[in-house]
Specification:
single chain; 557 residues; alpha+beta; six-stranded antiparallel β-sheet; 15 helices
């Protein structure tokens, strides 16, 4: 026994301390059988101390989650641990569930593991406090789970679907999410009705046929003033209807046929909460319960409001992002819609593909400038950054490139001039750029690069090769010195200029990315338009994370 490892006086002192403490103390052997319990633990467990000895914890208090895994871990590695256990002992208690906080230490003597000593304190609250704590814990757990499942994208309808599916699993038997056609503005018709669009719906399997009959996704529904959805939207407060009478059924459904459908499905409870973010109305969430499901209560309304509010923030973010994204795309397309015309003898094609809906549009651009002596300047650039500011900076780069091209006739000197203009105007956004001057009459092409990816030349037989152009620093770095390289550009050969969105991939070396472009097996003698379509099909990602700008130029022959 443990006591035999100490002297009689020490054993007596230890026993007085343990027997007199208000903490519950127990000693277990290596098989988790009781060797000793003090009077406090005996009272806590509702069993005399002597009836503990030789029995395991599970045998003494079978209805307590005693966390045997923690006890065995302490035995195994000797690291002291703390844990919370809960359940019911043999002692009478008015509580629905009791809780204890325990600290456990391994007992050793001269290298021999003797067992474990545990010290426990009851942390149970009274019944009302316990119920409240449980509700708060469940509510927080629900919100934590919702945070990982709702608002995973910047697409409004996807977020609405995620909200509907989550609520159908956790709160309602059938859920519908309706949004205003123009979030932030509640437009009331002459008859007082409010028009909403069904953005998402979800239901338990047994109610899916009912939901399909009640409304379809993307369907527009006009709710009269007396309808509870309109009431919720205008008042900004949740609406609960339990065991509805005829009048309330009429305010829940938009037609008499739908009232009949709801009754036939056994619907007995409804909850409608507003979707509001940053003071802006976005729509409503409607839920029903049927059959054996309990009636909606105030706690359900609070949970639904919390979830709807979180989803509404995501919806408002998506709306704002979509508005900016569309504005930038339209602005950028307008700037790129009318590049300059090339000189005779050079056939040129262009493509621009904006970043996917979940990515911010960048500052990719291209330009063509007809020069003297039958030559044509071709350029592709990428302003660092994203959004409207990058698109505006892109327009300045285009304008300054034309100015630089009017002053210089060599690609390297044009980039130097452009860099100097940028410094003079105080442009803060650096950019990469590649400039090519094609001379179709002589079959020549001169190139220079400011930190841009190398151009690629496609031969008439489909072979492709990257052009080794020394990449100087990006524009805006104050370098003002870029090297020009010249090469042949014979008839039938097509020069491709592009931005990094075409080939770059996360976690892929840039050389591997470039190799994919040069090995696509291009068409035989394609037109520039055919080549660009082929390149986009074979190389570009389905949903690009960055803009893509392309220019293809072929010498006619």
């Amino acid at each position: 026994m443990l006591w035999e490892k100490s002297s009689p006086p020490l054993r007596e002192v230890l026993r007085q301390i343990l027997d007199g403490t208000a903490a519950a103390v127990g000693v277990l052997d290596t098989e988790l059988r009781y060797l000793y319990v003090n009077p406090t633990l005996a009272r806590m467990n509702g069993l005399p101390a002597e009836e503990h000895v030789g029995r395991t914890v599970a045998e003494v208090v079978p209805d307590v989650d005693a966390r045997d895994d923690v006890l065995r871990a302490v035995l195994a590695d000797g690291i002291a641990r703390e844990s919370v256990s809960s359940g019911h002992t043999r002692a009478d208690s008015p509580l629905e569930r009791r809780y204890w906080h325990g600290a456990y230490h391994r007992l050793e003597h001269e290298g021999e593991i003797l067992g474990i000593v545990g010290v426990l304190l009851e942390i149970s609250a009274d019944r009302q406090q316990h119920r409240e704590l449980e509700r708060v814990r469940e509510r927080l757990a629900l919100l934590d789970e919702a945070a990982t499942r709702i608002g995973t994208t910047l697409d409004m309808d996807t977020t609405c679907s995620e909200l509907a599916v989550f609520l159908a699993e956790r709160l309602g038997d059938a859920v519908a999410v309706d949004v205003l056609p123009e979030p932030g503005t509640v437009r009331v018709a002459r008859d007082g009705s409010v028009r909403l669009r069904r953005a998402a719906e979800a239901a338990a399997p047994e109610l899916e046929p009912l939901q399909r009959r009640l409304g379809r996704r993307d369907e527009y529904v006009s709710y009269l003033p007396e309808h509870l959805v309109a009431d919720c939207l205008v008042s900004g407060r949740p609406v609960i209807v339990n065991l509805p009478d005829d009048e309330e059924f009429g305010r829940l459904a938009t037609t008499e046929n739908r009232v009949t459908e709801l009754r036939a499905a056994g619907m007995h409870s409804a909850l409608i909460v507003p979707l509001t973010a940053r003071g802006q109305d976005i729509g409503t969430v409607s839920m029903i319960r049927a059959g054996d499901s309990p009636l909606f209560g105030e706690t359900d309304a609070l949970i639904a409001q919390d979830l709807a509010q979180r989803a509404a923030i995501s919806l408002d973010n998506a709306r704002r992002y979509t508005t900016e994204h569309n504005t930038v795309v339209q602005f950028q397309r307008a700037l790129l819609s009318d590049p300059g015309r090339p000189r005779d003898g050079l056939e040129v094609a262009y493509r621009y593909r904006p970043a996917g809906q979940d990515a911010l549009v960048g500052g990719d651009w291209y330009e063509t400038v007809a020069l003297d002596d039958g030559r044509t300047l071709l350029a592709v650039g990428d302003v660092m950054g994203h959004g409207l500011d990058a698109a505006v900076a892109m327009s300045r780069y285009q304008a300054m490139l034309r100015v630089a091209a009017s002053r210089e006739n060599d690609p390297g000197r044009i980039l130097c001039e452009l860099d100097e203009l940028l410094s003079a105007t105080g442009e803060e956004r650096p950019a990469t750029c590649v400039v090519a001057i094609a001379d179709p009459r002589r079959g020549l092409c001169a190139l220079a690069s400011a930190g841009h990816l190398p151009p690629v030349v496609f031969a008439p037989d489909g072979r492709a090769e990257a052009v080794p152009v020394p990449p100087g620093p990006p524009l805006g770095a104050g370098h003002r010195c870029y090297e020009t390289v010249a090469g042949l550009h014979p008839p039938g050969h097509t020069l491709l200029l592009y931005t990094d969105g075409l080939i770059e991939r996360r976690h892929e070396d840039i050389d591997a990315s470039l190799a994919r472009l040069t090995r696509i097996g291009a068409l035989t003698s394609p037109t520039p338009d055919e080549l660009l379509d082929h390149v986009l099909t074979q190389v570009a990602p389905h949903t690009p994370e960055d803009d893509i700008a392309l220019v293809a130029a072929r010498v006619e022959g």
